[in-house]
Specification:
59 residues, Ribosomal Protein L30, Chain: A, 3 strands, 32% helix, 27% strand, globular
């Protein structure tokens, strides 16, 4: 399965609780933090919900 690199580019301050929990579930806590995860349908769905807060690259 392909991997993707997700980087937090915006703060979660003043965002909904659902968006904050999605960021935590992906392992993102601070701006400029990066995680590498498998590109499963569940992860892709999570990224779509917070695409305005993160940058995504394929590896």
């Amino acid at each position: 399965m392909a991997k993707i690199r997700i980087t937090q580019i915006k703060s979660v301050i003043d965002r909904s609780e659902r968006q904050k929990r999605t960021m935590q579930a992906l392992g993102l806590n601070k701006i400029s933090q990066t995680v590498e995860v498998e590109a499963t349908p569940a992860i892709i769905g999570m990224v779509r919900k917070i695409n305005h807060l993160v940058a995504v690259e394929s590896i």
